[in-house]
Amino acid sequence: MEYHVEKGEGGACRLTCFFSAADVTAEWKKAAAPFASSFRMAGFRPGRAPLEVLERQFGRQIAEETTDALVGRGVKKALSAEGLLPVTAFTYEGENALRGRDFRFSVSFGVLPDAETPDFSSLRIEGRIPAADAGQDAAALRDMLGRMAERVPVKEGRPQDGDIVQADVTGRIDGRVVPGMNTGPCRMRLMPLMPGEKAPDLDPVIRSLSIGETGTGTTVCPDNYPDPSLRGRDIELTVTLRSVEREILPPLTEETARRLGFSGVEALENAAHELALERSGARLHMEAKRELMERLEAWEGVEAPSCLVEHCRREAMRRSRQYLQSSYESPDKLREILALMKEEAEETARKKAVRRMLLLGWARGEGLEVRDAELERVLAGRAAAQNMDAASYARSLARGGDIYEMRAAMLEERALEALLAHVLRP
User: Fold this and answer.
1) How far out from the chain centre does Cα 11 lie?
2) How far is it, in rounded angstroms, from Cα 190 to Cα 156?
3) Residue % of the chain over a pLDDT of 90
4) Smallest Cα–Cα separation from 358: which of 287, 422, 295, 306?
5) DSSP 3-state assignment of 424?
6) What distance in Å separates the CA atoms of residue 168 and residue 158, rounded to the nearest whole number?
7) pLDDT at residue 340 in the model
8) What is 361-388 written as a DSSP string?
9) d(Cα 77, Cα 66) in Å, to the nearest integer?
10) Among 212, 218, 227, which residue's Cα sits nearest to residue 171?
11) Which of 55, 192, 352, 402 could form a cystine bridge with 161, CB 3.0-4.6 A?
12) Which of 313, 322, 315 is nearest to 179 (CA)?
């Protein structure tokens, strides 16, 4: 295999790879082998059908498999040799490979620019010690007792703390259903409120109903709602309560504690306190992590590569378009909303690109990496979720570069956790 790398401005990179006809034919035969083993045709033993026969039946699939394999192999080899770290998905240029012919393709993508490792020596995040009060201990204990709870349907009366309810919820503005606010059957648990905690706007409406009744309430459209024209406006809620289940907890006795695997009530209560502390720690960790992300996004004197900013902008608009397409039937209305979102998407993309560049640059300086085995485990999990073979799933991501964008995202997350541990001060 031969390759050539062209680097442009703004972190843009274009990789061209060339495979000889012999390389293509060898890979073509590998791709055809699974089809041969399952192909049945009079006059040929299983697995012995000539390539020409298989190509008439499965030519397109074999070409796709061959191309994906060659692209994956060529890109991986070139990136490793050149020490390049893609930070965006790929734009693929080329046709499918064909047996007996040379094969050339190009992929364009953004790379992490060569720069000094970011200096975070002055960065500090104030940490807090996890703590749990009596209410949080009680909630944790209730959850542990819930492992032995009996669920019974409630036929009369109104829902209480801890009940599991099912309700139909619809939200409207100016009489029109708000996209995403027509949930149909919605299942949730009514949680007890901690001191100083505000109940969700839906909560008092549900608690005021008996089964079969319909009530109304009001909530405010959140600031991050995809349609900017609806943000901050009042949403009229219509809620119909369909069912209620109540958990009957076992008594807190020595016998219950032993059945849950503890030596007694005191050990169970101690474990509940540890669980409450663990939850507090996780909450504080997420708050510190969010603060660090915001600090990085506002880092001064840093300009992210234009190709990375554009990639983040396209991804943000793509996700918004997918969400809104299922909610708005009018193409004109969809275009109007997306136009309103453009400026906001560009600012969000710039912040995300700065954060990714800083974290990946720091990861490179610290020697952090995502090993192939780690990436393969993630790919295997996603492939299983889609009922696909892991190897075939990985090959299908080669042309679009999704596998490298996935690795970059994993490395960014690893760097974020490592940097947080480095800058967090108790």
Assistant:
1) 25
2) 17
3) 56
4) 295
5) strand
6) 16
7) 78
8) HHHHHHT----HHHHHHHHHHHHHHTT-
9) 17
10) 218
11) 192
12) 322
Which two tokens mark 322? 């997918």
Q: Which residues contact 421 (CB under 8 A, 6 or more apart)?
A: none
- Please tell me the distance from the alpha carbon of residue 124 to that of residue 300, in angstroms, as a whole number: 16
C-alpha 334/C-alpha 321 separation (Å) is 8
Q: What was the pLDDT predicted at 49?
A: 64
**Tokens 């906001």, located at residue:** 344
182, two tokens = 């027509």
What distances in angstroms separate CA 397 from CA 22, 90, 158, 417, one per listed residue?
24, 10, 51, 27
Spatial contact of 260 and 147, defined as CB atoms under 8 Å apart: yes
> Structure tokens of 94?
């080329």
Residues 354 and 296 sit within 8 Å (Cβ to Cβ): yes
Between the CA atoms of 358, 364, 365 and 368, what dihedral angle is there, to the nearest 10 degrees? 110
pLDDT surpassing 70 at residue 244 = yes
CB 210 within 8 A of CB 196: no
> Most confidently modeled of 103-112, 197-206, 223-232, 339-348?
103-112
Torsion 245-251-252-255 (CA) sign: negative
Task: Find where tokens 């504690």 sit.
Answer: 257
- Tell me the residue type at 138: A
Cα–Cα distance between 128 and 287 in angstroms, integer? 10
Residues facing residue 164 across a β-bridge: 189, 245
- Closest alpha carbon to 303 in 354, 267, 344, 376: 354
Please tell me the predicted confidence (pLDDT) of residue 327.
66
